[in-house]
Design goal:
By secondary structure, the protein is an alpha/beta fold. The strands form five sheets. An eight-stranded parallel β-barrel has the order 10-11-14-15-16-17-18-19. Helix 6 packs parallel to helix 7 and helix 8 crosses helix 9. It starts with 5 loop residues before the first helix and ends with a strand.
């Protein structure tokens, strides 16, 4: 039978601060577990080895276990021993804020010791509205692990702080390259402590990080010393400071839908079964596809997620959160979190995957999924409609989209996703799951599935490299010139590819080696024209507010369509005319003004003047700003 936790939520929930609360005079330990019969705090000098130097009994008051340790414990490590019935288990505190190697013991520390020089002057990036954001998804290792650039701190947080890093051709790479591209935010794949990389092993290891162990602790393998809990915290702050100094925000990818471990997780050791959903027959449910799903709707599960988000936002001055499998988190929890996060940072950006990974016992009406977007006004969601309309279904290599072969059949869908899927009087068929472009993230490439280049290669097997580049540019233009929030994966701007010997391209590189996942910085030189085009598209988007409207009413009022035949069309957005032509024939248009982008070039300064008749070339866009 499914356990009944209603009594615990009603009678034992606690709304105060939990974890190790340090001061120079004493440390207060608070841990919640109404099921426990006894809890002790174990104090250690080291984060992994060595005997206990102290054991402190905790006193229980209504499910809250508490004790105090006199004196300064800064730099010490701790665990809890939790006895439930006759079974004792030692565990890290789920509220721990740093740890020794591999996240086994929490660390007690003075947070002031982790602040790099200049940290007090660092502040999150200000964002007037979500559609002003331009998001660049990046894995920490991918930035610096390849030998095509002269990084000193390969695969580490500190690689983001390195200056004058260049590829073999002497071109700037790393954070300097990202800043020059013009994006506003870097979305980091999970950087919280995860399970599947052994931090004690210095050999190269790779995982995306969607296997959480400790949510409030930075991943130790990205630090220069995973044994010292202060180092990982300070070096993550150094990364954020370096980005903020270049005007770039940092978005943290968070995985509150499941944990890697279940029965042996710190949550389950603290209070068996409580933090996880169960099926009707009492087994752990698996809506994540990873063996379990966290019960965000239970009072202390909800509190944990909100406390964790607020701590991370405040301590690390984060600019946003991206939620993995957001459909497994209940709507009330996310709305409560958004309210508190906006008090910390009014410009914070919140978005995620509006779906689940499988069947879940969480009622459909409570799920943070796309069809409930209207009940999550502070959250955006990835538009898989945009992705699959533009390039074809991601689950079929040969499937074609609007730009790579299915143009005429998908014209109405393309018009719809160009308008962020909001209802529009000229669109007969649409994906209307929101009425706000601020809730829509448009993309054709992310860490999941094939890269955009690889998808085009497999869906257009006879295409030349010139054809691939032309179609790639067209797809990029649609990402940056459609209403909504544009999102690209790192390296997309120089045709990122993930080839695998003897078997084509890697569809799911979550644990593939650096040789597959790393950014090949020499490709930046090889495909400089593609990079310059992306850079120009971003600059144009920033220049013209017509390309980043903030409401459905604006879209309906100011966007008008004209048919050009064969699947091609014109979208007039106030004073901006965007012609889109995925066909193999040039299309004539009539416009007066200045051309800022065509199939070859893009710039925020005019390429040339247009006075009347002109052409949108095949497999291209043309953007004209009227005088």
């Amino acid at each position: 039978m499914q356990p009944n936790f209603i009594e615990y939520d009603s009678n034992y929930s606690y709304d105060g601060q939990l974890g190790a609360i340090w001061s120079p005079e004493k440390t207060i330990f608070r841990m919640w577990s109404p099921a426990a019969n006894e809890v002790r705090v174990n104090i250690y000098s080291e984060g992994t080895d060595g005997e206990r130097i102290a054991v402190l009994p905790m006193v229980c008051r209504h499910g809250l276990w508490e004790t105090e340790a006199e004196g300064d414990l800064n730099g010490k490590y701790y665990t809890y021993t939790v006895r439930i019935g006759y079974v004792e288990r030692e565990t890290i505190d789920i509220y721990a804020r740093s740890a020794g190697v591999n996240g086994v013991r929490g660390m007690i520390f003075d947070p002031a010791l982790t602040c790099p020089r200049g940290w007090e002057k660092s502040s999150p990036v200000k964002l007037k509205k979500y559609t002003d954001a331009i998001i660049y998804e990046l894995h920490v290792r991918d930035l610096s692990s390849d030998e095509s650039a002269n990084f000193k701190y390969r695969g580490k947080f500190k690689a983001f702080t390195e200056k004058n890093v260049k590829n073999a051709a002497g071109e700037p790479v790393g954070l300097e390259h990202i800043a020059a591209l013009g994006v506003t935010h870097i979305h980091l794949l999970p950087v919280a402590d995860y399970f599947t990389v052994d931090e004690s092993d210095t050999r190269p290891q790779f995982n995306w990080g969607y296997d959480p162990l400790n949510y409030n602790i930075p991943e130790g393998s990205y630090s220069t010393d995973p044994y010292d809990g202060l180092v990982r915290v300070k070096e993550f702050k150094e990364l954020i400071l370096a980005a903020h100094r270049k005007g770039i925000g940092i978005i943290m990818d968070v995985v509150y839908n499941h944990t890697y471990l279940t029965a042996d997780s710190p949550f389950n050791k603290s209070f068996p079964d409580y933090y996880y959903r169960q099926t009707h027959d009492g087994h752990f449910s698996n809506g994540s596809g990873c063996g379990n799903e966290l019960a965000s709707e239970r009072e202390m599960g909800r509190k944990y997620i909100i406390d964790s988000l607020c701590y991370l936002a405040q301590e690390y001055k984060l600019d946003g959160f991206r939620f993995d499998l957001m459909g497994l988190i209940d709507i009330d929890t996310l709305n409560m979190a958004a309210e508190k996060l906006r008090e910390i940072n009014p410009s914070i950006i919140l978005y995620g995957e509006g779906w689940t990974g499988g069947a879940s016992p969480l009622e459909e009406g409570r799920r943070a999924v796309k069809y409930n977007t209207w009940r999550l006004p502070q959250f955006a969601m990835f538009s898989d409609d945009f992705r699959d309309t533009v390039k074809g279904n991601v689950f079929s290599d040969q499937s074609m989209g609007y730009i790579n072969g299915a143009d005429q059949q998908l014209e109405w869908k393309m018009r719809s996703v160009l308008c962020a899927g909001v209802r529009h009087p000229q669109i007969h068929y649409g994906h209307n799951w929101t009425d706000s472009p601020c809730q829509v993230v448009n993309y054709v490439e992310a860490h999941d599935n094939l890269t955009f280049h690889d998808k085009l290669r497999l869906s257009m097997p006879t295409a030349s490299m010139e054809d691939i580049i032309q179609i790639d540019k067209l797809g990029a233009a649609l990402v940056f010139f459609s209403q909504g929030i544009p999102f690209i994966q790192a390296g997309q701007e120089f045709l990122r590819s993930k080839p695998v010997a003897h078997c084509g391209f890697d569809h799911n590189s979550y644990a593939s080696p650096d040789s597959v996942n790393s950014l090949k910085w020499n490709k930046l030189t090889e495909y400089r024209q593609v990079y310059e085009y992306y850079k120009g598209l971003i600059a144009i988007r920033k220049k013209f507010p017509e390309l980043r409207m903030s409401s459905g009413d604006e879209i309906r009022k100011y966007i008008n369509f004209t048919d050009l035949g064969g699947g091609a069309f014109i979208a007039r957005m106030k004073s901006v005319i965007l012609a889109v032509n995925p066909t193999w024939q040039d299309r004539e248009i009539i416009a007066t003004g200045y051309i800022y982008a065509d199939g070859e070039s893009a710039s925020d300064t005019p390429l040339r003047e247009c006075d009347g008749r002109t052409y949108c070339k095949s497999r291209s866009i043309l953007l004209v700003a009227e005088e």
